[in-house]
Design brief:
about 400 residues; alpha+beta; single chain; 14-stranded mixed β-sheet; 6 helices; 22 strands
Length: about 400
C-alpha cells in the first residue's frame, strides 16, 4: 500500500509531484510513498486536469490499492448440526425446582411412561404452613355456611308439613325452591377452594420429589445431566428426544447465501478444509423462497439441508464434525477493488460511484459501475482496468 494524506479543501487545489509514483499491475497492493497533483472540475471526470498550487510532501501521504483481475467466488462454509424432524423437548416449569437426577443417557431407547428425570421444588415451611392455614380457614367457613343453609332448608321443610292452608303451603314451597337454588349456587363456590387444596397437595408432593416421564416412545438425543443438583430455569432443556430416525442438517446462514434447491457439499472431518468424507446435499428451506427468515430457538437465521437416505446409512454423522460448503456464484475475470477506494456522490438526484485513479502523478476522478459488492470489496463492471492504482483517501 502507498501511504498518503490529502490536502484538505476543494478539489480545485493541485499538488506537485515530489516523488515518483510506483504502481504494480499484478496481484495485491504494495505500500509506497506518493505525492500527486490533485484535480477537480468538469475535466476531472474525463481525465483532464486543472493546475493549482503545490503543497509539501508531508501533506500528501495516502494509501494506494490496485485493481485486481481474478476468478471471484462468493463462498459459504459453516458447521452443521443434525436436526431430527420429529422431536420433543421436556422442561420443568415449576419455580424453585431443583434437578435431582437424570435417569437416561444419550441414544437410549425409552418407552412411554418411562422415568426420564427426577426433581423437587424448594418451598419454605413457613409458606406451606401459611397456605395450609388459609386453606383450612376457607374450608371451615365454607362448611359452616353450607351447614347453616342446610339447617334453614330443613326448618322450612318441617314448617311446610305443619301448614294447613293451601295458600300458605304454596308460599312455603316457593321459599324452599329459592333456598335450594341458593344452596346449589353456594356449592359452586367450592370449586376455587378445591383448586387451592389441590395446589397445596401438589406443592407438598413436589417437595418430596417429582418424576419426569416420557410421553411417547423414542430415542434420547440430549440430557441436562450436567445440571443435576442445580436450580432449574423454565427455559432449561431437561430432556430432548426423537420418535424416529428422520433428520436433516441445520446450518446458520445470517447472510442468506444459501438458496432454496441449491446444491451444497457436505464434509465430515476435522474442519471444512481438512475432511475425511465428502458428499452432496440440497437446500430444502431458505429465506429467499418466501422472503421470511426462518430462525431456530435462539433466534438465529437457519436453513435446512437434505442428505440422501443412502448417504445417511453409509456415513457416520453422529460421531463426526459436519460442515457445509457452497459457492453461491462465481465470476471469471472479475475486476475487484478494495471497498475503501470506492466513493459515492449525488448526481442529478442519483447516487453514483467513483474512484480516484492515480496516473502520471495525478489523481483522476473516475465514475464506475459495480455489479456486486461486499463490506470488503466491489466487483467493477465499467470504469477501471486491471492493474490501475486507486487512492484510498481518509
Amino acid at each position: 500500500m502507498w501511504k498518503g494524506k490529502i490536502w484538505p479543501g476543494a478539489w480545485r487545489i493541485s499538488l506537485f509531484l515530489a516523488a515518483a509514483v510506483c504502481v504494480t499491475a499484478c496481484g495485491g497492493p504494495e505500500e509506497k510513498k506518493a505525492e500527486v497533483l490533485l484535480y477537480e472540475g468538469e475535466g476531472a471526470a474525463s481525465g483532464s486536469a486543472v493546475s493549482g498550487a503545490a503543497v509539501s510532501a508531508s501533506d500528501s501521504d495516502f494509501e494506494v490499492t490496485t485493481v485486481r483481475k481474478t476468478t471471484y467466488k462468493e463462498e459459504f462454509s459453516d458447521v452443521a448440526d443434525i436436526e431430527y424432524t420429529d422431536k420433543e423437548t421436556l422442561y420443568i416449569f415449576e419455580e424453585n425446582a431443583v434437578l435431582d437426577a437424570v435417569k437416561v443417557k444419550k441414544s437410549q431407547a425409552v418407552k412411554k411412561g418411562d422415568v426420564l428425570a427426577e426433581y423437587h421444588v424448594k418451598t419454605s415451611k413457613t409458606k406451606l404452613a401459611k397456605q395450609k392455614l388459609e386453606n383450612d380457614q376457607a374450608r371451615a367457613e365454607f362448611e359452616s355456611g353450607l351447614s347453616s343453609l342446610n339447617r334453614e332448608l330443613e326448618q322450612a321443610r318441617s314448617e311446610l308439613g305443619q301448614l294447613r292452608s293451601q295458600a300458605e303451603k304454596n308460599m312455603k314451597r316457593l321459599e324452599i325452591k329459592k333456598m335450594e337454588k341458593q344452596i346449589a349456587a353456594y356449592k359452586k363456590g367450592e370449586k376455587e377452594l378445591l383448586s387451592q387444596e389441590k395446589e397445596y397437595a401438589s406443592l407438598v408432593q413436589m417437595q418430596k420429589g417429582v418424576k419426569l416421564v416420557a410421553k411417547k416412545n423414542g430415542i434420547i438425543t440430549k440430557t441436562a445431566s450436567s445440571k443435576v443438583g442445580e436450580e432449574i430455569d423454565s427455559s432449561d432443556k431437561i430432556i430432548e428426544m426423537r420418535s424416529n430416525n428422520k433428520w436433516v442438517l441445520k446450518v446458520e446462514d445470517p447472510e442468506s447465501k444459501l438458496r432454496y434447491n441449491m446444491d451444497v457439499v457436505v464434509r465430515l472431518g476435522t474442519d471444512v478444509r481438512n475432511f475425511k468424507d465428502e458428499l452432496r446435499g440440497k437446500v430444502i428451506t431458505a429465506s429467499d423462497i418466501t422472503g421470511v427468515e426462518e430462525t431456530d430457538e435462539e433466534g438465529n437465521s437457519v436453513v435446512y439441508i437434505e442428505i440422501s437416505e443412502a448417504d445417511k446409512k453409509k456415513y457416520d454423522f453422529e460421531n463426526q464434525n459436519i460442515y457445509v460448503y457452497a459457492v453461491s456464484f462465481s465470476i471469471d475475470d472479475a475486476l475487484v477493488v478494495d471497498a475503501k477506494a470506492v466513493y459515492s456522490e449525488s448526481v442529478k438526484n442519483t447516487n453514483k460511484l467513483y474512484v480516484m485513479v492515480v496516473e502520471n502523478g495525478k489523481l483522476h476522478k473516475r465514475f464506475i459501475v459495480s455489479n456486486y459488492k461486499t463490506e470488503r470489496e466491489y466487483l467493477i463492471d465499467q470504469g477501471v482496468t486491471e492493474g490501475q492504482a486507486l487512492a484510498i483517501l481518509d
